[in-house]
Each structure stands twice: as structure tokens, then as C-alpha cells.
Amino acid sequence: MTLLPKCLFAGLILVAGVAVAKEGVQDPTVKARMDLMGTIGMNVKVLGDMATDKVAFDATAAAAAKEALIAASADISAKFEPQATDPVAEAKPEIWTNWDDFVAKGEALNAAATALDPASLDGVKAGMGAVGGSCRDCHSTYRM
Ligand code: HEC
Which of 24, 83, 109, 116 could be stapled to 127 by a disulfide with Cβ–Cβ 3.0 to 4.6 Å? Predict the structure, then answer.
């Protein structure tokens, strides 16, 4: 249960200056997209820990994580559109040469999160396959 407030208030935490992004990132545009990925990662962890029985199923926490994932994935194209670089960035330049495909992969995550049924543990387990698959599908092509 300690993860949930973190996710819900990730925006506030960032305003307070606690970074989610990788240590040492300088460029503010790169930091913003890393923070977005960090938010996505936190919420996937909430669902993944339930799906793998690491934590007890909690329908309220699952629903909150689902909503946070939908919102964050809808923001992927806006956060990645400016082609910024940073020594610690892991974004491949192909993102901007294959932009439509990159956007489609972000939309695939959004669709997978939307389809996930957070009302039962079986629903979370069933939905996590597509969510995790969409992370891998984009990272394997566009992340170093
Ligand atoms: C549309 C493409 C795309 C999708 C979908 C996507 N990612 Fe990413 N992700 C990236 C890229 C590109 C980077 C590298 C960004 C950089 O370093 O500038 C990244 C980086 C990350 C990072 C590291 C952030 C940091 O601070 O360096 C995490 C964690 C992460 N993604 C988690 C996830 C998870 C979990 C999912 C699935 C639920 C996911 N991502 C889905 C493209 C994507």
C-alpha cells in the first residue's frame, strides 16, 4: 500500500524536486520523458507485484494504477516529440525517423492499459501480458 500514494502524487513529488529520472540527467526535456517512463514503471510494478502474488490483490490500487498508466501512456508522444539528447539518455534516434511507428507503440500501451480489468486478480493477470508486451515491443526497437 505504500506504493499507491507515490503513484497518485508523482506529479507533486516531482514539483518538490525529487527526481524519478535517471541520476545525472541534465536536459529538462529528456528528464521529463524519463520521469514519465518512471511513472509508467511504478504503476506497472503495482500491477505486476499483484499479478505475481508478491503483494495481495487490491482492487482500488489496481484501478488507480490502471488509470495512471492510461494517462501516462497518452502523454508519451507529447513528451518524446522534441528530439532532445543527454549523455545518459537511452532513446534511439530512430524514434524521430520512424515517428508514426513510435507513436503507434505508445498507443498500443494505452490500449493494453485500457483493456486491463482491475476488478479481479485474474483480470490483472490476464491484462498484464499485453501491457508488458507493449513495453518490450517499444524498448527493443527504440531504447538503447
Ligand atoms: C512508445 C515507446 C515506449 C513504450 C510503449 C514504453 N517505453 Fe519505456 N522507454 C522508452 C524509451 C525510448 C526510453 C528511453 C528514454 C531516454 O532515455 O531518453 C524508455 C525508458 C524507460 C525507463 C527508464 C527511465 C529512466 O529514468 O531512464 C523505464 C523505467 C521504462 N521506460 C519503463 C517502461 C514500462 C514499464 C513500459 C510499459 C508499461 C514502457 N516503458 C513502455 C520508450 C517506451
Answer: 116
Full-model pTM: 0.89
What dotted CATH number matches 3-18+25-80+88-142?
1.20.120.10
- For residue 91, the 8-state DSSP code is B
Residues 6+ apart with CB under 8 A from 28: none
Centre of ligand 1 to C-alpha 136, Å, is 9
Query: 62 in ligand 1 pocket by Cβ < 6 Å?
Result: no
10 lines ligand 1 (CB under 6 A): no
Count helices and strands in the chain by DSSP H and E runs: 8, 0
Per-residue pLDDT of the chain (144 residues; tens, 9 = 90+): 444 444 444 444 333 344 467 788 999 999 999 999 999 999 999 999 999 999 999 999 999 999 999 999 999 999 999 999 999 999 999 999 999 999 999 999 999 999 999 999 999 999 999 999 999 999 999 999
Whether ligand 1 lies within 6 angstroms of the CB of 68 is answered as no
